[in-house]
Specification:
The structure holds two protein chains of two kinds.
Chain A: H1 11-37, E1 40-42, E2 49-51, H2 55-62, H3 64-97, H4 102-110, H5 117-127, H6 134-141, H7 152-180, H8 184-192, H9 197-208, H10 210-227, H11 229-234, H12 247-257, H13 261-288
Antiparallel strand pairs in A: 1-2
Helix pairs in contact in A: 1-13, 2-13, 3-7, 3-10, 5-7, 7-10, 8-9, 10-13, 12-13
Chain B: H1 6-33, H2 54-63, H3 74-105, H4 111-119, H5 130-139, H6 146-150, H7 157-168, H8 172-180, H9 185-196, H10 198-213, H11 217-222, H12 231-241, H13 248-268, H14 270-280
Helix pairs in contact in B: 1-13, 2-13, 3-7, 3-10, 10-14, 12-13
Classes of the chains: A mainly alpha, B mainly alpha.
């Protein structure tokens, strides 16, 4: 709180006006429309709309495709988070040992942050292309027949790898910062007490890193759920047979391609509530600093 | 480092080199593919070393594009991306620094409500409210325009919070001194706040430029005229169009061109980039 303030009454509103207008027109109004739409149903010709209460939501819970999408989203988000955070933690611990070369390694590891998810998708799509890609060729040598166009699990693996690849640099930077914040004296003391590197990692470094880990956990789940639209759309488009149809993609697909406004709006509302929960979790628990 | 263990150091180096290679693999493959001719992909697997068609492929894409895919030349798409990225970055910084100034340095009725209106945008990423937002933009007649591409994306709670945080650390004595010297609020903003937050603005700009350049879903929806295609959204249309007739060398050349500007920004301004990343997530 500032003690010294200016007394104008009109000026602050003028300063806030641009942001408030944009927020209202492009955020609050559409969000309100989504909520309203989710209680309505249009007839087949789009001429009459009627209020149907919670029917759109009830239909979602009975819809096998939607339940499948929930499951796909969970598998996808958890896999991306674990893969990307695991790799980044290993790389961050390795860089933490370096003195002179850490800057070079950091530069070589951070740039994928700048690659658009859609482009990341295209790159991995090409590498795994069943006819000309390298990976299917390598996998064929060990007897695995890769085909993400027909195999559900191959398609899921592909989008998980592409999404995790892009997120490695972000996690890496935060893990490095977290590791540097751990006082060296603690690890030195443990070393004097005879703890080896592995023991020191699990008993000191990893527990003290938990605020960073928890923060990244939330960020990665949010990333996998909402920012990976480009990866999915550029590669599998939700297929084969709904195997990679995550919730964000389904909202778009049902709304724009399927023209099912009521259902799409109900899905939007469910997603908004999910973001709300994740934001609250992030704000409440990150503040509290998870630590042992 | 606690004690000297050459074995562990070697292991760490090997891990890092392996990591760097894995991270670079897709881009290397894309680069190699973009230097070959169309017939080199018929043989079965793609080559692992660059071919002789680098200049030819890239100049074809920049100048003419793939006529069959209905996408404009890549140079046009890159220009559109640049305009959109700059508009989003500058627009976001401008509106959020003003609103942070209003929230921190003034007391007025409904201040709390205004703050919450901005805060709530954190919870509404464009992907979750995509259909109604598209409707609003269509009703306003902003489809196929730079305004439609950028304005709906420039309201941001994160940038406002960042500037609020910065302003809260600026000592009150400066404000008092400015007021005693007879400076009004706008003069104080221009001559004291702006210069003091210069490095934060630069760091935020790097992050927002990348954010803007990499937008995908939004440009895909609001641009139906190829004059306004952005490169990240255009590349998908191109890949779709060449599905029947594989022109992977051209798609990969486009992918490289889509990556180069934001990657160059990250590598060239690494210090600002890291600062921006850490600050916006606080």
């Amino acid at each position: 709180m500032k003690r010294t303030i200016f007394r104008n009454q009109l000026l602050p509103w003028l300063l806030l006006a641009p942001q408030l207008v944009i927020t209202f027109v492009f955020f609050l109004w559409p969000a309100a429309q989504a909520v309203k739409q989710s209680f309505l149903r249009e007839d087949a010709f789009g001429t009459r709309t009627s209020f149907v209460g919670l029917a759109n939501f009830e239909k979602l819970w009975g819809n096998a495709e939607y339940l499948n999408s929930l499951q796909v989203t969970a598998v996808f988000a958890i896999s991306v988070t674990i893969l990307s955070m695991g790799l980044s933690l290993i790389l961050a611990v390795a860089v933490d040992r370096m003195i002179r070369s850490s800057r070079v390694y950091t530069t070589l590891l951070v740039w994928p942050y700048a690659v658009a998810p859609a482009v990341a998708g295209i790159l991995w799509w090409f590498i795994f292309n069943p006819t000309i890609g390298i990976m299917p060729y390598v996998l064929a040598q060990v007897g695995y027949d890769w085909n993400h166009i027909s195999s559900k699990s191959d398609a899921m693996t592909l989008v998980v790898i592409a999404s995790a690849w892009k997120q490695i640099s972000y996690n890496f930077l935060f893990f490095v910062a977290g590791l540097q914040a751990i006082p060296a004296s603690l690890r030195e003391a443990a070393a004097i007490d005879g703890a080896g590197p592995v023991r020191r990692f699990f008993d000191i470094t990893f527990p003290l890193l938990s605020p960073t880990t928890f923060f990244l956990l939330v960020v990665n789940i949010v990333y996998a759920m909402f920012d990976t639209f480009g990866v999915i759309d550029a590669t599998t488009e939700g297929g084969p047979a709904q195997a990679t149809n995550i919730m964000v993609y389904k909202v778009y697909f049902d709304g724009f391609v399927g023209q099912n406004m009521g259902s799409s709006a109900a899905q939007s509302v469910v997603l908004m509530m999910l973001v709300l929960v994740l934001t609250v979790v992030q704000f409440r628990y990150v503040e509290k600093k998870v630590e042992y | 480092m606690i004690e000297n263990r050459p074995g562990l150091n070697l292991l760490a180096h090997l891990t890092l080199i392996f990591g760097v290679c894995v991270v670079a693999l897709p881009v290397w493959v894309a680069f190699v593919a973009s230097t070959h001719g169309a017939t080199d992909f018929m043989s079965g697997t793609i080559p692992m070393w660059p071919g002789p068609h680098l200049v030819e492929n890239y100049s074809q894409m920049l100048g003419a594009g793939v006529s069959t895919s209905g996408t404009p030349p890549v140079a046009t798409m890159m220009l559109n991306s640049l305009i959109m990225a700059l508009a989003i970055a500058i627009g976001k910084i401008a509106i959020s620094i003003l609103s942070a100034f209003a929230i921190v340095y003034f007391r007025f009725p409904l201040r709390g409500l205004a703050f919450w209106c901005i805060f709530i945008t954190l919870m509404l990423p464009v992907e979750v409210r995509i259909v109604p937002t598209f409707q609003v933009v269509a009703d306003l007649g902003l489809l196929n325009s730079y305004a439609g591409l950028s304005i709906p994306l420039i309201a941001s709670a994160t940038a406002t919070f960042l500037f609020r945080q910065v302003f809260l650390t600026i000592p009150d004595e400066l404000t008092e001194a400015a007021r005693i010297d007879g400076a009004g609020p706008m003069k104080f903003f221009r001559d004291i706040l702006l210069p003091l937050s210069r490095s934060n603005i630069a760091a935020l700009f790097v992050i927002l430029f990348i954010y803007g350049w990499n937008q995908y879903l939004w440009p895909l929806l609001v641009t139906t005229s190829s004059d306004y295609y952005t490169i990240v959204a255009g590349i998908k249309r191109m890949a779709d169009a060449v599905d029947g007739l594989p022109q992977w060398h051209l798609v990969m050349a486009t992918a490289m061109l889509a990556m180069i500007p934001p990657v160059a920004v990250v590598i060239g301004m690494q210090r600002l980039f890291v600062k921006g990343l850490v600050e916006t997530e606080k």
